[in-house]
Design a protein that fits this description.
The chain is an all-alpha fold. It contains 13 helices and two strands; from the N terminus they run ααββααααααααααα. Helix 2 runs parallel beside helix 4, helix 3 packs antiparallel against helix 4 and helix 5 runs antiparallel to helix 13.
Length: about 300
């Protein structure tokens, strides 16, 4: 029997999440088409402006933003919630790619200190929110661009010990990080998100239960709009792991193909960095979804 989804239980309109996804999808397409028409110099200036705005909003969220589930990461604009770090990440990557490319052309430009300063400032604000998972993601992409841009590898040798010290600091500073990693490593431990992912696979089967059917949407009422519900309704064949993995692989392949034939260092590094940002985020989400990685910290 077709049942109404439990959004109203959360005080939200019936089509809240559908309207939200359509709005941001349309906005994303407009931004994508608009960015594709910009010259590199204009893109760099726009990225700098976006990064400054994002940093300002991140400071505002920490000082006076709403606390949701123990973190201050969101601002409310025009009836929608927004994470400033999400618009700041691609801007940061573009600027870092430009700085690293300039470093290979002009030794008099303090590109490395500026790139380090931007990364430390951005990641520092993420840690304060706290958002340790996004901090790890941004630091990983930054480190990859550092190596791929041809910077001295003797400096890159410090990445591993620095990462280990940072993780140890997060382990002791944030109890939720320690708790989630320990539950992930415990073979007999259980976690709600992983349990729901496995349940959606088992109950949805190959073809799914059909829109509105099943029990996932009501038993997972805390976040009923997540991917578990879609997979439960549509099944593994149409909404399982092969689909997002395939899309992510195509994106990575197209980006690498473009970078291979692109002579300009800035464009090459920017494309690789943005692709890594998307691919790693997707890989983390898929890994968490099936229990291969600990839940986001």
């Amino acid at each position: 029997m077709l049942q109404a989804p439990p959004w109203p239980q959360k005080g939200l309109p019936l089509y809240y999440f559908a309207e939200r996804h359509f709005f941001f999808a349309a906005l994303g397409i407009v931004v994508m088409l608009g960015a594709s028409t910009l010259q590199p110099a204009t893109l760099r200036r726009l990225s700098l402006a976006i990064l400054l705005v994002a940093l300002g909003l991140m400071v505002w969220t920490i000082v006076g933003g709403p606390e949701i589930k123990g973190a201050r990461r969101w601002v409310h604009l025009a009836g929608h919630s927004l994470q400033p770090s999400e618009i700041g990440k691609p801007a940061l990557i573009v600027l870092v790619a430009w700085l690293f490319s300039e470093r290979t052309k002009r030794s008099d430009v303090p590109a490395i200190p500026i790139a380090i300063t931007l990364a430390v400032l951005f990641c520092g604000l993420l840690v304060v929110q706290p958002d340790v998972g996004q901090t790890i993601l941004v630091a990983t992409v930054w480190g990859a661009l550092f190596v791929l841009s041809g910077q001295p590898l003797r400096y890159a040798a410090w990445f591993l010990p620095f990462g280990m010290v940072s993780f140890a600091g997060a382990w002791f500073a944030f109890p939720h990080v320690r708790s989630r990693v320990e539950r992930f490593l415990d073979p007999f431990g259980r976690h709600l998100q992983t349990d729901r992912a496995i349940q959606s696979f088992a109950e949805g089967g190959l073809f799914g239960r059909g829109p509105g059917e099943g029990t996932i949407k009501t038993s997972f009422a805390r976040c009923p709009h997540r991917f578990h519900v879609c997979r439960h309704w549509r099944g593994i064949r149409r909404c399982g792991m092969p689909c997002p993995a395939r899309v992510t692989g195509v994106l990575a392949g197209r980006a690498l193909r473009f970078a291979w034939h692109e002579p300009d260092a800035f464009a090459r590094l920017a494309v690789i960095g943005l692709a890594l940002l998307i691919v790693l985020q997707a890989a983390i989400n898929m890994g968490v979804n099936v229990g291969l990685l600990p839940p986001r910290v």
